[in-house]
């Protein structure tokens, strides 16, 4: 199909498609459009956001089947072919002959590119190497001074994944505070968040408000915009003394205090009741994956708080109460909390 038709047809499945580059749209027209239409016939919507456990398992299954069909001996060779220059031509020929694109995305209602990136993250052995040593941090600074933000090159030199080196550099690139936040830092954070939200809101309103309305309008926004999809690396740069994850955690604390008027929600009998409510609601939902949970809706089990606060409390609960939680599925964790921890909490209350 021609470019305009491709944009028009893809827009039904990807509303922001007109912001995507023409070359990417052409690729999506070839790799995704037919798949999206088939999923629509089955009543399945195209998904974005975090991958569920079920989708991760489907990716593993698709990769394993493709390796069996082609005789390629590892997922690393299949997904990181440039690491094996002597096998590159053979692997690329087998990928083309056996329709790698189609096989990888089988049964997963998402854009092919996102599935491919997820597969690379799952199967990259450089992704799971634990904490960085002091020497590695110094190496990372040195390589960045030489190669800038060429994370692909740096990741190969350090035998770490692209994402890992980029995120670690974000943490260590300048002197970062690790103690309590000063009043000045907190003010900088609040101004930075206000600035990015104001900018985003003004862009959204550009076509819907007259100039006189804009000049007299206070900043009125949906509550969700205060904590969902904020550009944390941009906010980190504006704050200057903290890295993005610290900024995100601090902002959640500030919002929680504002929304609850500073009332303690997770201490004493209130804390016990909040844990009991949280476990009961999660058990009632019968979700098989954390991505299926509406954390926004769950927030009222604790009080009027941001979803990140509830997710953090659930994480702490499973880590402190569920033995070998890393080896359990989400539903097994919830079952354990309901059967073993809930009676104990109710008795304590």
From TrEMBL:
GO terms for biological process: termination of RNA polymerase I transcription. Signal peptide: none annotated. GO terms for molecular function: chromatin binding. It holds the Pfam family Myb_DNA-bind_6. It comes from the Eukaryota. Residues 124-172, 173-255 form the Myb-like domain. InterPro entries: Homeodomain-like_sf, Myb_dom, SANT/Myb, TTF1-like. Residues 124-161 form the HTH myb-type domain. One of its GO terms (cellular component) is nucleolus. PANTHER family: TRANSCRIPTION TERMINATION FACTOR 1 (PTHR46760:SF1). This is TTF1 factor. The gene is Ttf1.
């Amino acid at each position: 199909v021609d470019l305009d038709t491709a944009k028009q047809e893809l827009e039904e499945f990807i509303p922001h498609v007109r912001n995507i580059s023409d070359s990417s749209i052409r690729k999506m027209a070839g790799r995704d459009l037919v798949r999206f239409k088939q999923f629509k016939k089955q009543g399945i919507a195209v998904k974005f956001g975090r991958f569920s456990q079920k989708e991760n398992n489907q990716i593993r299954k698709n990769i394993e089947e493709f390796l069996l069909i082609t005789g390629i001996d590892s997922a690393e060779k299949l997904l990181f072919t440039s690491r094996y220059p002597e096998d590159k031509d053979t692997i690329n020929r087998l990928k083309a002959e056996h329709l790698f694109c189609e096989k990888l995305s089988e049964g997963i209602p998402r854009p092919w590119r996102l599935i491919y990136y997820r597969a690379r993250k799952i199967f990259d052995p450089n992704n799971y190497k634990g904490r960085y040593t002091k020497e590695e941090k110094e190496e990372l600074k040195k390589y960045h001074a030489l190669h800038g933000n060429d994370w692909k090159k740096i990741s190969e030199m350090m035998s770490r994944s692209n994402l890992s080196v980029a995120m670690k550099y974000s943490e260590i690139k300048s002197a970062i505070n690790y103690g309590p936040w000063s009043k000045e830092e907190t003010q900088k954070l609040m101004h930075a968040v206000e600035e990015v939200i104001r900018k985003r809101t003004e862009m959204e309103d550009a076509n819907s408000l007259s100039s006189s309305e804009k000049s007299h309008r206070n900043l009125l926004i949906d509550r969700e915009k205060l904590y969902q999809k904020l550009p944390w690396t941009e906010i980190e740069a504006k704050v200057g003394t903290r890295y993005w994850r610290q900024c995100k955690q601090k902002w959640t604390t500030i919002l929680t205090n504002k929304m609850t008027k500073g009332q303690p929600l997770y201490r004493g009998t209130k804390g016990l009741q909040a844990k009991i409510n949280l476990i009961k609601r999660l058990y009632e939902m019968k979700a098989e994956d954390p991505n299926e949970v509406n954390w926004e809706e769950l927030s009222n089990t604790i009080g009027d708080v941001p979803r990140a606060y509830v997710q953090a409390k659930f994480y702490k609960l499973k880590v402190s109460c569920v033995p070998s939680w890393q080896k359990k599925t989400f539903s097994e964790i919830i079952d354990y909390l309901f059967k073993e921890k809930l009676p104990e909490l109710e008795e304590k209350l």
